[in-house]
Amino acid sequence: MILDLFAGPGGWSHALNVFGVRDVGLEWDAWACRTRVRAGQLTVRTDVAVYPTWPWLGRTTGLLASPPCQAWSMAGKRLGLVDQPLVHQAVADLATGRDTRARLLTACQDGRSLLAAEPMRYLHALNTVGEPEWIAMEEVPDVLPLWKQYAAILRSWGFSVWTGIIQAADYGVPQTRRRAILLASRVRVAEPPPPTHARVAEPQSLFGPGRARWVSMAQALGWGATDRPVPTVCAGGGPGGGPEPFPSGSRRTLSDARKRGTWMPRPDGVIRQSRHGGAGWTARPGARETQAADAPAATSVAEAHRWSWSLRSNNQANATVRPLSEPAGTLFFGHRANECTWVAALAWSPTEDTGTPPVPIRITACEAGLLQTFPAGYPWAGNKGQQFSQIGNAVPPLLAGHLLAPHLGVTLDPDDFTLAA
Fold this sequence. Notes:
Largest sheet: 7 strands, mixed
CATH topology of the largest domain: Rossmann fold
Radius of gyration: 24 Å
């Protein structure tokens, strides 16, 4: 059995399912558990910090752990860094069978900090029966010193261990998501998987097979793909590919226009929609037009494409903004300040009046899931906020697949992780 601590909505689990393997996930969040159940993943809803270790003894081959990152993440207050000495103490104590968590927890600035020590409680118990065979753990980069402490302990128990920072984009994830990784094994040399992608494509040579260029958001979302069907009017193109996101001001506005019957197909691919009952038309790249019968004539396709679309990672001043032709920045969710939005900027500077730029459009859960390498039809449970929280905290399944394949003795086929299809 493979035990998955802090299993979330199933990042590790989905990768395992692609390989034909199942795990048992321990997860507290009710909506993440519902997502897992919908996805057919074995789940125990529980607090990892209180669940007993004895049920897993004598039957566990692999252990996965991605403790909650909110206490350490740059998107939060990062009180985990303040609590780090206490977490190190908890790990050291648990490695010898001493449980000092209750006392240390009272001194923590963020109660979630100590959750990063929980895997050691399970590992100590499992080690008494010579388990597990292998381990894979993932967290935000600031947790790397803690992983190095784990590594020293695991080596003393006979494991081969590797720790380091991995760039998710180097493994085909359409997102520059850096993560601290720990890989350990009793039966093979632990080492990171070879990167498959690079910022600039590297041709095959005598020194290696070469690497493809980082996967862009446009590629992952299927936008602009000529071999994919163009969807009906629904901003964002849809999981089957199609045009770039519609600069409609908001998806609701465009949806309401459909309900009122004020849109009609156009062969030139321009979308136009009235902001105030017929006045102030704005052109949009896409596959349909929203226009009343007495509206002014549509502008040209060239004019509609004057706006270049990018993804803004959050609402804060230092937010990462990336064009569709690049991978996304790290996706942060969980509160309003971390809302990801599509924003428009002038793609070129015409001499005539440029008009009003389109209003930013909030990313959908489906789009965010695709940028995390979950399949388009993944059964997210909960409202938008609950879905975004799950997605932002998850391990990208494609990255998980690269990390797990050597332990499982299988070869990863990227086609098995097809996204927008």
